[in-house]
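Justification of computing resources. Each target in the renewal requires a structure prediction run like the one illustrated here; the chain below, 541 residues long, is used simply to show the kind of job we budget for.
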Amino acid sequence: MRLVLLLITALLALPVLGVLGAWGLMDAQALSLLAHQWDTVLPTYTLQSLQLVLGVGLGVAVLGGATAAAVTLFEFPGRRFFEWALLLPLALPAYVLAYAYTDALQFSGPIQAGLRSALGAKGALWPDVRSLGGATLLFIISLYPYVYLLTRTALADHAGPVMEAARLLGAPLRRRVLEVALPMARPALAAGVALALMETLADYGVGSYFGLSTFTTGIYRAWLVMDDRIAAAQLASLLLIVVGVLLILEQRAQSRLRFASNRAGVPGGLTAQPTRLSLLGKLGAWAVCCLPVFLGFVAPVLWLLRQLWLEAKASETPVFVPDYLARFGEWAWASFRLAGGAAVLAVVFALALAFTLRRHAAQGAPLLRGAARLVSLGYAIPGAVVAVGILMITGAVQHWAPQWGLPMLVTGTVFGLMYAYLVRFSAVALQSVLAGYAKLPPSMDESALLLGADAQRTFMEVHLPLLARSGLAAALLVFVDAMKELPATLVLRPFGSDTLAVVAYQFARDERLAEAALPSLAIVAVGLIPVLMLSRALRKA
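Resulting structure tokens:
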């Protein structure tokens, strides 16, 4: 079992090694190509990616920190509602937000047209949404929940009693928030920002649709337009290095989240109660909490529903015809089939690896623990890097062993796409299963051993029933992530088998935004599942 798991882990690490291995293929032609990229596109990719990262990082830090502080430290009507409603933007992929806001706010859209008619204006009333600034704002309202979630947890666990002590020592409210609560939550805030930036760098849908020149869009241009795998791998490796730095920063921030939790109070009978706000403070808290929920979920969903309804009502060939519904059923079935397969495989692998780690914990099992850490890095790897890495490995194997026919097995097949999904999302399943195992005491295994149960029976009759909820949660998370995944799916999907994410992107790219509404809404509906699970878990915490 250990050998099999190590082999599987090595396979999951191959795409990253394939990307990094491109630098070992440097010859005169590759060096010339790298120099050409440095003189032409690389500065643009670097500058736009840096501007995007800086803008998104600052925005999610401010918005996520402000909303977390509002619902954790203060008492106002509607606070319980906003505790979970602020998570709703997680259900919308950033590219779905891009489609909705472009359709609503573009120069030819109904909002600008109506305002120009009412005001008698001629030109554009605001800058084009399809810009670097527009993409930055969309990423902020889409990704701030990462910061909100971690910061809220840190504040709820540690800040309340200390703020109460500061109040008794005479510190005003502003000083208690800025100098006591928020500094304690800085590691959590930094970890949330790092996660948001990794998602930003991994995005392809928004960058491609808005015509941005980022590393991710550059990778696809190099591979699909220039047909140059070495250039694509070089760009992918640079992006991988940046993501690796962010991952290290995120892990360092997480390691600093070590405080003594004291929810009930502090010595001396002090209790941690949210501060009641004045009328002006309540209005400010409502504004801070309502704005991201409305812009990040309510407005785009309502707009997509409106477009779907108008298209069905006014068009001579409405979208609700049997042919369109049949095609939608095919797209949905392809998405559910691929995402379901990825979820099952990821959970089975995670259960096997976690169980083996538990069985050999006494011996240390350094190879297995290293394998688990390697798998855990997969979620931080952008889909573009995974796709390029798989194709690089496939090309190398084809060069050395053409009789194997590996490209026919991996490129444009379900097997290749499952491979990419496992590389990216096995980490999600493994973390959930490990969290479930952490709740099972080792004495349970010892009791089963004393009663004569072997490893297989212990797992099937003792562990598996107790891990049912963790396994189901892992499967749902992988399922939703695979449903929303776009970059790797665009390159590796089976021919003639489009997913909802791919179809929504293609419709939006062709300016058929009304037709993109239905698959986009289906993705949003599926994305609500983990959000509701998370909000329920937070209410129980």
